[in-house]
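Q: What would this complex look like in 3D?
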Amino acid sequence: MAHDKTQSDEKTRQHKVRMTQEKIDRYGKLNGDNDILHYDHDYCIQRGFRGTLAHGMHNMAPAVDLGLEKYGGDFFYRGQVSVRWTGPVCPGDEQVTVLDAEDNVVATVANVPGKGTATIMIGKSTLRKA
Amino acid sequence: MTRPAEVKVLEGTTPGTRFDQFEVGAKMGEVSFTITPEIIDEYILAVEGDEKLYVVDGRMAAPPDVLCVYMTSTLYQKYPPIQGIIMCEVAFGYRHPIWRDESTEVRLSGEVTDKYVKKERKFVKWKGRYKRADGTLLAEVENTFSVPE
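A: Here is my prediction, written as structure tokens for the whole assembly.
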């Protein structure tokens, strides 16, 4: 299985997924996004990135699934997902997304040169008040 | 079925929009597309979604974020993209499921709400609304991206 989803306790949920260029390309083929940042490694290095970049919306998908896991069917009617991307996810990275008891979302990748573990996305995945 | 590429202007196919060409308050025209069960299946595969989560009262639904792949269609039809745009923030409010066992015609429209320069980077902010053809609100979105110049 390509990814691992665990409920580590009653309050904190976690989702892990390994990014590959194949997955970036698959998302890009559906998304229709032709931005060079997603497929041209040399261009991305020139811009100061570690490699090609996964689509931000692709990185957001675990935050939606974690909200659905927590709130079930209500999330389809009142789900609120807001994220800010603070760093890239590149091929080879394992994205770990955590939803805490207060509905905060933090996603990280490990082994980033010069940084160690880097936060790549923060936000909320919660319910709008009825 | 409407593939997102059919309703988006692709990067690199036109000169693209410079930061100074975005106009705060500009309305973006309505874009219509059809989300089919096939598109939903392809989306779940692409994001490695968890099938068991997409059920509402026993009926299969699409992951609500399937709307993401169409998000920039209305924006890019009015403001064709240049290469190197980076998504910075997004907020989605989901209001109604998209059912997985039928095709759904969706209409997306929006407007530019802000543009600003911060730490020498140029940002554009806009918001949009996804509605079914019968007027049912499916989701609202607010997005900020940076334009490389």
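A: To summarize the key features: The domain at 3-127 of chain A is CATH 3.10.129.10 (Thiol Ester Dehydrase; Chain A). The mean pLDDT of chain A is 91.
Q: Very helpful, thank you.
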